[in-house]
């Protein structure tokens, strides 16, 4: 239980404003655009916060940039992480922009195109072992024994404060927003957005959406403590993975700030991707489609929809393009 005894006061709105200043000129202030099709369905104005437009194709650039910029301020010049997905790309991109050396540890089973994508962003790739766990282990060893700074994907105050700048932008662009819907995995995005939005408007509704297959945060909220779940493949691949049994911040913040949690099956996520393409002209990945899918399925709590405009955080665009083509052609 000790690990979960954390308080929102670890994070302050000042940290979020400091993050915003670090992000200026490095990360996009993304547009918030209304969706006529989804507004008609939800019978309330629906707005999309387009993190798909960030240079690396996902919001992860915000947290990584804030974490790396804050490390650079302390004289750190070498960082390490073990993510092969959006966090790995974000760390590589932010490191290059800040003239920091980034090392990304990956297992020998990571597909060549993912390895190349991270290398192309200027990071050093270290291939170790045959599982994500072994890669993670090596990243932590480099941090412990060789003085690299380890950059976690979500459970870190600077990462959370970086993602929280999305909440600031929403509150400024649409002060009358009644409800924000956020894809939920490790909870860095949810905790950050909810913390900033609630600090500004304590009445705002916060909904977390995730896939029903392998939803670690959802199971942890139900159990009242971080628990492990079996990892299975999902269209929302960026929402996979655990929250860490020794979770320090995101579990408690999510637990304290969430009003409603929604689970979706794979068919719903596919419909979300397809709707985004056909009706919004957006190519988005499965993790980013869960908010749209929740509107299409009519599973958002009706009382919350009456509070005012609904904002969906469209978190990323990095879907395999052949997989995308199969999904949008399957209908
Ligand atoms: C990482 C990620 C998420 C989930 O963010 P957490 O902070 O882990 O909850 C959602 N969507 C995309 C596209 C992501 O890359």
List the SSEs and their pairings.
Layout: H1 13-23, E1 32-34, H2 36-42, E2 46-50, H3 60-73, E3 78-81, H4 86-97, E4 101-106, H5 112-120, E5 124-127, H6 132-146, E6 149-150, H7 157-173, E7 179-183, H8 188-200, E8 205-211, H9 216-223, H10 250-257, E9 260-264, H11 266-280, H12 290-297, H13 302-305, E10 310-314, H14 321-329
Parallel strand pairs: 2-10, 3-4, 3-6, 4-5, 7-8, 7-10, 8-9
Antiparallel strand pairs: 1-2
Helix pairs in contact: 1-3, 1-7, 3-4, 3-7, 7-8, 8-10, 11-12
The chain binds pyridoxal-5'-phosphate.
The site of pyridoxal-5'-phosphate has 19 residues, from helix 8.
Keywords:
14 helices; alpha/beta; 2 domains; Rossmann fold; disordered N terminus; binds pyridoxal-5'-phosphate; 6-stranded mixed sheet
Could you please describe the fold and organization of this structure?
With 331 residues, the chain is of the alpha/beta class. The protein is 45% helix and 14% strand. It folds into two domains: 2-58 and 156-330, 3-Layer(aba) Sandwich (Rossmann fold), CATH 3.40.50.1100; 60-150, Rossmann fold, CATH 3.40.50. It contains 14 helices and ten strands. α1 crosses α7, α3 (60-73) crosses α7 (157-173) and α11 (266-280) crosses α12. It is globular, with a radius of gyration of 19 Å. The termini are far apart. The chain binds pyridoxal-5'-phosphate. Pyridoxal-5'-phosphate is lined by residues 58, 60, 86, 154, 183-190, 238-239, 285, 287-288, 315-316.
């Amino acid at each position: 239980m000790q690990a979960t005894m954390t308080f929102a006061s670890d994070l302050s709105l000042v940290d979020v404003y400091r993050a915003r200043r670090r992000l200026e000129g490095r990360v996009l202030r993304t547009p918030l655009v209304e969706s006529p099709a989804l507004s008609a369905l939800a019978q309330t104005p629906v707005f999309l916060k387009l993190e798909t437009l960030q240079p690396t194709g996902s919001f992860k650039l915000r947290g990584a940039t804030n974490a790396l910029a804050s490390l650079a301020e302390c004289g750190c010049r070498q960082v390490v992480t073990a993510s092969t997905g959006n966090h790995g790309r974000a760390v590589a991109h932010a490191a290059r922009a800040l003239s920091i050396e980034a090392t990304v540890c990956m297992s020998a089973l990571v597909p060549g195109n993912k390895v190349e994508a991270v290398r192309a962003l200027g990071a050093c790739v270290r291939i170790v072992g045959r599982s994500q766990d072994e890669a993670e282990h090596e990243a932590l060893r480099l941090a412990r024994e060789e003085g690299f700074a380890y950059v976690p994907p979500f459970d870190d105050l600077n990462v959370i404060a970086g993602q929280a700048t999305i909440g600031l932008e929403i509150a400024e662009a649409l002060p009358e927003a009644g409800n924000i819907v956020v894809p939920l995995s490790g909870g860095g995005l949810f905790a950050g957005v909810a913390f900033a939005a609630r600090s500004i408007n304590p009445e705002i509704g916060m909904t977390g959406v995730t896939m029903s297959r392998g939803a670690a945060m959802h199971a942890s909220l139900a159990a009242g403590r971080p628990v492990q779940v079996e990892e299975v493949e999902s269209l929302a691949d960026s929402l996979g993975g655990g929250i860490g049994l020794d979770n320090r911040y995101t579990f408690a913040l999510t637990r304290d700030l969430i009003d409603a949690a929604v689970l979706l099956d794979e068919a719903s996520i596919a419909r979300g991707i397809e709707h985004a393409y056909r009706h919004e002209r957006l190519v988005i990945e499965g993790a980013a489609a869960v908010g749209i899918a929740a509107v299409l399925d009519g599973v958002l709590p009706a009382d919350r929809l009456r509070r005012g405009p609904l904002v969906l955080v469209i978190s990323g665009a990095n879907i395999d393009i052949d997989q995308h083509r199969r999904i949008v052609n399957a209908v």
